[in-house]
Amino acid sequence: MIRGSDLGILKEKLAEARAVTVLTGAGISADSGVPTFRGVDGLWRNYRAEDLATPEAFERDPRLVWEWYNWRRELLAAKQPNSAHEAVAELERRYEQFWLITQNVDGLHRAAGSRKLSEIHGSIWMVRCTACGSIEDNRDVPIAILPTCRDCNGLLRPHIVWFGESLFPEDLTQCASALQACDVLIVIGTSGVVYPAAGFASMAKEAGAFVAEINLDTTPQSDLVDLSIQGRAKDVVPLLLL
Ligand code: BV8
Ligand code: ZN
Fold this sequence. Notes:
Elements: H1 4-16, E1 19-24, H2 27-30, H3 49-52, H4 55-60, H5 62-77, H6 83-94, E2 97-102, H7 108-111, E3 117-119, E4 122-129, E5 135-137, E6 156-160, H8 169-181, E7 184-188, H9 200-206, E8 210-215, E9 227-230, H10 233-236
Parallel strand pairs: 1-2, 1-7, 2-3, 7-8, 8-9
Antiparallel strand pairs: 4-5, 4-6
Helix pairs in contact: 8-9
């Protein structure tokens, strides 16, 4: 439930803040009809993300992995940003010092107008050649399976960070400075189980930020944050702008 007093405290902190950082997960896109990873609708043909979003799975069966990503691309192509994505884009416009860190690969933050962001797990709308490394936008729905590089004909993979793969160094640098610099960190719609993102709330806390979490449930970070607001992102996040 949304306790008015909790919202009031967060709005006060935002009013005093110079620098704001937002961290989002699949929960912010749930209200756009996008299945979350660990929710009841997070399965595909009874596979879990951890089974398919790995370099080993791609090595073993690139066709199966591309079929999963194609299924998600087809599903996402029809989805629109919701009022929570739009409110986050508005927060970017209000704060000189603002950064968005998203774990989502769905592109909905960009579609809502966010520009100061790190898509730390990559983007489902970008592909990378496994042979020459070229990285390109690719919005084909459906995408040809198996897609090949137009430069060298090598096998393309999703430009996404899989389990067991390191995040892109430039993103890690950007996240570290955004977490160090912020007066307020707002964590929206993430279960807080996937590292290194799951450690970002405590990094900001150690650097002196006021940390608030907006989620339907409690998470492993709920005890650590200063404020935990339970509610749907599309209902709560726009209230921060009033
Ligand atoms: C790495 C791309 C270095 C795929 C993804 C330390 C300790 C333990 C394990 C590790 C560790 N360090 C590394 C690991 C291994 C691993 C990891 O953390 N495993 C977990 C499962 C234990 N991490 C990695 O491999 C990372 N790499 O650390 O590199 C390294 C290198 C080699 C060896 C070791 C270390 C890479 C992680 C990136 C993996 N890629 N995505 C794809 O998307 O196709 S992760 C995947 O999970 C998605 O990106 C997703 O964003 C992410 C997190 O999930 P959430 O976004 O939180 O979504 P979820 O469904 O879980 O939760 C939704 C939440 O929303 C819920 O809380 C729900 O209550 C809430 N909600 C729902 N509806 C709403 C809502 N809230 C508000 N409103 C609503 N309406
Ligand atoms: Zn190539």
